[in-house]
Amino acid sequence: MNFQHHLIPVAAVIGTLVAGPAFADSAKDTVDAAKAAGVVGERNDGYLGFVKGEGAPAVQAAVAEINAGRAQLYRGVAAKNGVTPETAGAATYKSVVQLKLQPGEFYQTAEGAWVQK
Q1: Which candidate, 48, 30, 26, places its Cα nearest to that of 100?
Q2: H-helix or E-strand spanning residue 50
Q3: Cβ neighbours of residue 97 closer than 8 Å, sequence gap 6 or more
């Protein structure tokens, strides 16, 4: 597997996730607040997940909206780069944790445990 080939999808996805224009501001604001409160974290597959429980209905809707946008993004990047959407999402995970996650927010380890940054 050519490592350079997989840098392209990660760079493209990170740029879009950091810029964030594809998501409604209200969903992003809701998820950001839920992340700060320790309710939502970054799953190891490149999607958002609930650290504990399921969260309030507004948080569930915001997470679903953002995850749907991420799925679409991963499908597009995968199609352009000859990888699966799952590969695009998983490849993005580490960079999102390193570049986007704030101290105190949660992410999932490769084993599935939730830890704070």
Answers
A1: 48
A2: strand 48-50
A3: 42, 107, 117
Region 26-33 average pLDDT: 93
Query: Strand, helix or coil at 2?
Result: coil
The 3-state DSSP class for residue 104 equals coil
- Phi then psi for residue 50, to 5 deg, are -95, 125
Amino acid in the structure at residue 106 = F
**Cα 45 from Cα 39, distance rounded (Å):** 18
User: 80 with 5: CB under 8 angstroms?
Assistant: no
The label of the residue with tokens 């490592």 reads: 3
Above 70 in pLDDT, residue 31? yes
Q: Rounded to an integer, what distance in angstroms lies between the CA atom of residue 11 and that of residue 77? A: 10
Residue type present at position 15: G
